[in-house]
């Protein structure tokens, strides 16, 4: 217990410093950030930003050859800005905006906790957030979701910093943060901070204090900031693009909320996923939730604000017709504050809980660092698709320069286009039916190009098709990645492993 007491004192007690939290966050969020291969939806951001550079058009997003304005532009622009500064577009550049947003979110939670109660709450909430698995996961993933979380909690933190003497500048910054957040993912970036602020205004009865001309005047330039990218994409080349960004905001946010056309999870979706998204701190969150009724009368107004905000945010997401697991992510900082506030309460056994939480923080930090930063990196250094891309380019370069080859995808994984740096208009074929049941005749019918065998063409595909294609592509040799003998058993049955068929004679 003495050791745990010292850890608690060091993490959030009198010896605690935000700089310690910052150093830990830099280690956990940035170590080998680009090592993991693209994960599912990351390819969407990779493809869209690569296409922006390829077309030299940053106002009209395309997913491959398809117009794709389903998300506003700002999350793509952040990645493009990083790529422009570094001169490259790799997985590191793709993820850097999310990792930086994760740092900013930790600072905002710390400031919000300190303002609500004291720096102890701010530091403890920061450590809990940093050691929440899905916070770290999304901070190391290229998407708009961590940007959305960060913008929401930053707006709320700014409101609490300035609510006592807010003027035009304070309102302008608040609305600008909200506008930029909405430009990353959608209107949910406006709703989350609005609910949190409205709860506080109701509790403080401060409507008259804020509903003054400076607030409405400050709203005007923030609205202009929000509308500018949509105006620009419509004014410059909008007629040829054919998609209206503001209509898609309505479709993806308002229409999806009330009349969902996809992602129709059951009403209990977030009852399952909020505890999952809080792991490992669900261990303390659930007891904090169950003791809420007995604690209510002795809770401070700030503690009640956290509880009300968490409840109303949960209801807002639950009442949406469209539900997916990660939509709940913006609630996580408020749930963490709720948990930290309970841990610091004066209830019986509170000291013991705090000591246990200190040990858990250190243990979970080390586990997350080992699994997400180190072990994943080692795995993908051996099995990652970048190894295949490097091997294919080397083999192709022995015959003729890589840029002079034509690449055709035969139902290959979409992320390979990023690793091979293929142009958005490269030729790609899909497949219908079970991949494991495709005979040579069926493949020839689905992919007529393998019968014509055009010159200077390399076919990339999946290992499952290799036996059938070897009988069709006479005069071609198969290129695949060889694995170290001690790790072969991990991949020997992977039917989706990438392979390529390359003619020994490029004129074949």
TrEMBL record:
GO BP terms: lipopolysaccharide biosynthetic process; response to iron(III) ion
Domain Glycosyltransferase RgtA/B/C/D-like: 70-229
Chain coiled-coil ranges: none
Keyword field: Cell membrane, Glycosyltransferase, Membrane, Transferase, Transmembrane, Transmembrane helix
Record-linked InterPro entries: LipidA_mod_glycosyltrf_83, RgtA/B/C-like
Segments passing through the bilayer: 76-109, 121-139, 168-199, 211-232, 267-290, 302-320, 326-344, 356-382
Assigned GO CC terms: plasma membrane
Claim: Zinc is one of the keywords in the record: no
Location(s), subcellular: Cell membrane
Keyword RNA-binding annotated: no
Pfam family, one: PMT_2
GO terms, molecular function: pentosyltransferase activity
Membrane topology: Multi-pass membrane protein
Annotated protein name in UniProt: 4-amino-4-deoxy-L-arabinose transferase-like glycosyltransferase
